[in-house]
Specification:
- By secondary structure, the chain is of the alpha/beta class.
- It has a single domain, classed as 3-Layer(aba) Sandwich (Rossmann fold), CATH 3.40.50.720.
- It is globular, with a radius of gyration of 17 Å.
- The N and C termini lie far apart (42 Å).
- It binds NADP nicotinamide-adenine-dinucleotide phosphate.
- NADP nicotinamide-adenine-dinucleotide phosphate (NAP) binds next to helix 1 and helix 4.
- Keywords: Oxidoreductase.
Length: 237
């Protein structure tokens, strides 16, 4: 029997990279997928590509009204996966308060509000998967905001898991993944070569690697209050 047979899975940020891979992997595992984006067209496009009755809904984690409306419209949702990230990378001298706030909204404040609005109608065997990232344990110049936002996710996961128990809350912390979000990096191939040379897996991750870990998290009923590092064993120092 498919692992997620008939479960209603809301995927926040399904329109690109890892989120799209998660949408396809959960659908293949039998889930009824509800794909979100801040743009209706993007959500509709992803849902159409998935087929199998997948739904689309516009949802912006910086606008609590869209979260509350989605919760009311969708009714019971069994599992939530939020892959959303807004990037405020760069030297400190270039950082603007608005971008810093948006980064924390996508990763921390928004997921807290998602939990607030959806948990009341979630079943007790439901789960929530949030996305951290390697920057929280591997600080680097220009990644201060991402490191701190991911560190907040690492702390948020056990806090939420305690508060909404027995609903499970699991964090996923990817290493470097060729998700499309590195495509504008001028020295992407050199950077990827360095990752391949330095991690024990000797490869850069794929969105499907991370999606497989999400399906594992959604279906592992003794797994909660922790963050899984899916990073090819990338050295922390
Ligand atoms: N790729 C990597 O190497 C890597 C490494 C470590 C951690 N991660 C983490 O893994 C996750 C996915 O990575 P990715 O590379 O696939 O990211 P991505 O392509 O940048 O996708 C991020 C998604 O976040 C959504 N989003 C941004 N702000 C939002 C908001 N306010 N409300 C709702 N959705 C919002 C965007 O959706 P719309 O624009 O369609 O609304 C977009 O689809 C992220 O959390 C990222 O930090 C990735």
């Amino acid at each position: 029997m498919p692992q997620l047979d008939g479960a209603r899975v809301l995927i926040v940020g399904a329109g690109s990279g890892i989120g799209t891979a998660v949408a396809h992997a959960t659908a293949e595992a039998g889930a009824h997928v509800i794909a979100t984006s801040r743009r209706s067209e993007t959500a509709n496009h992803v849902a159409a590509r998935i087929g199998r009755g997948a739904e689309a809904i516009r949802l912006d984690l910086s606008d609590e009204t869209t979260i509350a409306e989605a919760a009311q419209r969708l009714g019971r949702v069994d599992h939530i996966v939020s892959v959303a990230a807004d990037h405020a990378n760069g030297p400190l001298s270039t950082l603007e308060r608005r971008a810093i706030n948006e980064a924390f909204t996508a990763k921390v404040v928004g997921p807290i509000l998602l939990t607030k609005h959806f948990v009341p109608t979630m079943p007790t065997d439901g789960s929530i998967v949030l996305f951290s990232g390697y920057a929280s344990v591997r600080p680097a110049p220009t990644l201060t905001v991402m490191a701190t936002a991911n560190g907040a996710v690492d702390a948020l996961v056990p806090a939420l898991a305690t508060e909404v128990a027995p609903i499970r809350v699991v964090g996923i912390s990817p290493g470097v993944v060729d998700s499309g979000s590195w495509d504008d990096t001028s020295d992407k191939e050199t950077f990827f070569d360095n990752i391949r040379a330095s991690n024990p897996a000797r490869r850069v991750g794929t969105p499907d690697d991370i999606a497989a870990a999400v399906v594992f998290a959604l279906t592992s009923r003794f797994l909660t209050a922790t963050t899984l590092r899916i990073d090819g064993g990338q050295p922390v120092a």
